[in-house]
Amino acid sequence: MTSDRRLSLSTLSDLPDDIRRPAYDPTAVTAGIVHLGVGAFHRAHQAVTLDDLLASDPQWGIVGASLRRADMRDALARQDNLYTVAVRSGEEARLRVVGSIKSIHVAPEDPEVLLAAMCDPAIRIVSLTVTEKGYCHDPATGNLNPAHPDIVADLAHPRAPTSAPGLLVEALRRRREANVVPFTVMPCDNLPANGPTVHRIIAQYAALLDDALAGFIEHDVAVAGTMVDRIVPATTEADIAEIDAGLGLADAWPVVTEPFTQWVIEDRFPTGRPRFETAGAEMVADVEPYERMKLRMLNGSHSTLAYLGYLAGYETVSRAMADPACERLVRDMMSEEIMPTLEMPGSDLGKYRDALIQRFHNPALKHRTWQIAMDGSQKLPQRFLGTVRDRLAAGASIDRLALGIAGWMRYVTGTDEAGGAIDVRDPLAARLKAIGKAAGRDPERLAAGYLGVVEVFGGELRHDPAFAGPVTRALAALFEKGAAATVREYAG
Ligand code: CS2
């Protein structure tokens, strides 16, 4: 495809008729939201909901920001920030062009421009998808990690921050100084209780700078927690070629996703919000039960499939799910170990589970187990350990959960079952690998070493034989028999 046939405002009218496009004039939209972390997930989820809303309420366009790299900005700038969302399942494949992102800033290139955007009185919401590690916190406690290198750097130069907490706090400080009402902070990442957690993290960061500012953030800034759900694998070259063929135009960075989408939002927006509910979002008073359900059921199963599936040689989630033992393992883990820990009056958890199983089977998504396996040290607490603690308190079994956790331990040793290297991506990767190296293939020493990582397991779990026992046994089985046979054994 040549560059003059690129997706852009001027080529929108050339799209085939069946491709949905903005039902509004993107140039007439004004910005009401700054979003930190314009990755694939944001573009397939929140930005699509806003795209639905902009026709009736054009004041909620998005100013995006990348906190690290310039590649997304560069790719989308050439196409007027338009991009394609490809929705795929076994039954359907449709394309839609989204126009809700007005511009993208690259924070490290020029934090001033981003901060100025965040301080614009027209901006009423700053939302975030910066991944678990982007909050610079301690995953086990949910507190800010003041020793995090990005936090150390921002505390030394608080007026030119680069971390998410640093940017939020500096923008809120400037708004306060200029007598501009604070924006509402809306985290959209898979953290437990993401509203209170992010509120605490930014208040703790501010407290290291100025007590009055910390008090202001604690009492006068609203944080609306959300539960977000849509499976969005990384876009591949093959996806791009297929989508370009469907568009008849070149899109440098489309996103691919499933039909399912869910967004549950805590209704705390003292300075105004879009009517999210008219575009399918659910507004609730307390989002925590929804987050707990989603993190434990979907993400807990996802990580289990990621570690064990990767070790067993399955490249994607749907490949792993095609193995009946893997499917049975996650289904029974949900039914017998996770669902009893959840209280969701008015919702049918059995149906929720069945829908998840079906979503994981989606053959049209090439969701790599390796991708989901990333950053496990940041994900394990909310995906497994809350469930584990509830089960242990009830004196109940945790065998399948323990196998998922042992799968992570086996994976982060950095060596696969054939002796090949695993490309482990994790902020703690070096330390995790060193623990593996020191313990060798001795499951007792290995489990003890990993359970001693307090950022993940906290201080108490490793001393509980009802936890350490099943984890060590599962790890021993993984070394002895390999992942495929161990999953068969545990799946019964
Ligand atoms: C996945 C999530 O990569 C991962 O860790 O478990 O991104 C998952 O696809 C989403 O949370 C689904 O909503």
Brief digest:
The protein has 21 helices and 13 strands. It is an alpha/beta fold and 492 residues long. It has two domains: 282 residues, NAD(P)-binding Rossmann-like Domain (Rossmann fold), CATH 3.40.50; 204 residues, N-(1-d-carboxylethyl)-l-norvaline Dehydrogenase, domain 2 (Orthogonal Bundle).
Structural class: alpha/beta
* Number of structurally distinct domains: 2
Please tell me the CATH architecture of the largest domain by its name: 3-Layer(aba) Sandwich
The major beta sheet can be summarized as:
5 strands, parallel
How are the elements arranged and paired?
Layout: E1 31-36, H1 40-44, H2 46-53, E2 61-66, H3 71-77, E3 83-88, E4 93-98, E5 101-106, H4 111-119, E6 125-128, E7 137-138, E8 143-144, H5 149-156, H6 164-177, E9 184-187, H7 194-207, H8 211-220, E10 226-229, H9 237-247, E11 255-257, E12 262-266, E13 282-284, H10 288-311, H11 317-321, H12 324-338, H13 349-361, H14 369-373, H15 376-393, H16 399-412, H17 429-439, H18 443-451, H19 454-457, H20 465-481, H21 483-491
The protein binds D-mannonic acid (CS2).
